[in-house]
Write a structure and sequence with these properties.
Blueprint (H helix, E strand, L loop, with lengths): L1 H23 L12 E3 L13 E5 L3 H12 L12 E5 L4 H4 L8 E6 L5 E7 L16 E3 L2 E3 L1 E8 L3 H32 L1
Antiparallel strand pairs: 1-2, 2-8, 3-4, 4-5, 5-8, 6-7
């Protein structure tokens, strides 16, 4: 029984150290410019919202999200891979995440669990879900050129100290739960 107890503590310590290393890895670098695109200098797309990047492009939704998924799935430290989830939100959620005046056809989020998020908002006037099909425009015009989409990129970084604090809270709760389960199991065995 003592060997099992030692092995479980060793395993728990190993998992804690791996989780701590994951949480302390530096976030990916700021997003690179979207290829084959023009950076927007429209009001609201420059310095009003920190870390917001806006581009006009003819790339498809899949090309844009794949480009940033590839960039955002690696840490700056030794180019280590980071686990990531890709979430698809309703376009209306853009009004909560970015601002309430943003036009949106889709909003995707790349999440590093317990760490950071990376939002990709795309507005394609030909696929605008809030406009009747017969009233939709096929393209956007910016600086005299036509584009199929406007893309907004918003990385949301978390504080590494808060990540570690959250991990410590989780560890304390798990230790408490383990003791409660053992206590309940012991009282259930004595009743039989």
């Amino acid at each position: 029984m003592k060997k099992i107890k030692k092995a479980s503590w060793f395993l728990g310590l190993l998992i804690f150290l791996l989780a701590l290393a994951y949480l302390l890895l530096p976030s990916p670098a700021d997003p690179p410019p979207l290829p084959e695109s023009t950076k927007s200098n429209l009001p609201g797309d420059t310095v009003e919202i920190p870390y917001l990047y806006a581009y006009f492009t003819n790339l498809s939704r899949e090309e844009v999200t794949s480009f940033y998924q590839e960039h955002y799935s690696r840490s700056r430290l030794f180019d280590l891979p980071l686990p990531s989830l890709r979430l698809n939100h309703p376009p209306e959620y853009t009004w909560v995440v970015i601002r309430d005046t943003v036009l949106s056809s889709y909003l995707e989020e790349i999440v590093h669990p317990f760490r950071d998020s990376f939002y990709i908002n795309g507005y394609e006037p030909a696929n605008d879900p809030f406009v009747k099909p017969e009233q939709r425009r096929p393209t956007l015009i910016y600086e005299g050129q036509e584009y199929k989409a406007k893309i907004l990129i918003l990385p949301v970084y978390s504080n590494p100290l808060m990540r570690v604090a959250l991990l410590l809270v989780v560890v304390v709760v798990l230790i408490f739960l383990k003791r409660e389960v053992i206590s309940l199991y012991g009282s259930f065995r004595h009743r039989r």
